[in-house]
Amino acid sequence: MNDRVPVLEFRHVHTHYGPVHILKDVSMQIYPGELVCLLGGNASGKTTTLKTILGMVVPSSGDVLVDGEVMTGRPTADVVMRGISMVPENRRLFKRMTVKENLEIGAYLRDDDEIDQDMEKVFEMFPRVKERLGQKAGTLSGGEQQMVAVGRALMSRPKLLLMDEPSMGLAPILVQQNFDIIEQINDAGMTVFMVEQNANMALSIADRGYVLQTGQIVLEDTAENLLANEDLRRAYLGQAD
Ligand SMILES: Nc1ncnc2c1ncn2[C@@H]1O[C@H](COP(=O)(O)OP(=O)(O)OP(=O)(O)O)[C@@H](O)[C@H]1O
Ligand SMILES: [Mg+2]
């Protein structure tokens, strides 16, 4: 695996919000085709990690690489153009816009003629989305909003899909469906980097995982080993939130 170029790499990344040191010497690599999860409690720096990938937070030192190229300090649009797309925390749909408009926004940086074709693929994955095309996104149920948020991210034809707590706020049955869909997207060849507090569920579909604690990677291993790790079980697994 190590002779391949990672889709995404962090090299000794540190970030600050003002004087507050958040990410501390974070290094990680995500290889093509992998499904990797980032676990950690509240305020450990998970969302900050995703924002750093997208250039919304700029490292105070260290580098972010996409396909082996240093992207540190580059604008978010450049990172999106390289094929990185995010399903944000709490979905963040444009609530007053229709479902169709939300999907179209996902493709706004594209100028090819296969956009309609990709929208059809989203409908195949989520027939419910097709039924609701004209509805204002803010009036959708939580589960439907999650489908549109995933659809919107896929509309940019990413090579790396970032997901921030996809199961947050969903009923248990939808959480299961949601993880099934993430697994399906990954099986179709998409590289996925997923932030989750639901460690058991995340590790059940992931290849590997990193564990973040107050901004530091304290553990990294295969999903299988992490599931069997006693320290991790005590700290995170089975935790209700
Ligand atoms: N824009 C900001 N300005 C100042 N501090 C911030 C900002 N964004 C996040 N923080 C702080 O950085 C720390 C890490 O936040 P982050 O959102 O990355 O955590 P998280 O692991 O995603 O947490 P959660 O599980 O609650 O979503 C927190 O203490 C948070 O208050
Ligand atoms: Mg977060």
Mean pLDDT across all residues, rounded? 91
Q: Uncertain spans, ≥5 residues at pLDDT below 50?
A: none
**Strand arrangement, major sheet:** 8-9-10-5-11-12
User: What structural class results from the helix and strand content?
Assistant: alpha/beta
From the 3D coordinates, which CATH architecture of the largest domain would you assign?
3-Layer(aba) Sandwich
- What's the CATH H-level superfamily name of the largest domain? P-loop containing nucleotide triphosphate hydrolases
Count every helix, treating DSSP H or I runs of 4 or more residues as helices: 10
Largest sheet data: 6 strands, mixed
Please estimate the helix content: 25-40%
Structure description:
With 241 residues, this protein is of the alpha/beta class. The chain has 2 domains: 164 residues, P-loop containing nucleotide triphosphate hydrolases (Rossmann fold, 3-Layer(aba) Sandwich), CATH 3.40.50.300; 72 residues, no CATH class. Helix content is 36%, strand content 24%. It contains 10 helices and 12 strands. It has a 6-stranded mixed beta sheet, with helices on both faces. A 4-stranded antiparallel beta sheet has the order 4-1-6-7, with no helix packed on it. It has a two-stranded antiparallel ribbon with strand order 2-3. β9, α7 and β10 form a beta-alpha-beta unit. α3 packs parallel to α6. The longest helix is centred in the C-terminal third of the chain and has 16 residues. It is globular, with a radius of gyration of 17 Å. The mean pLDDT is 91. Magnesium ion binds next to α1.
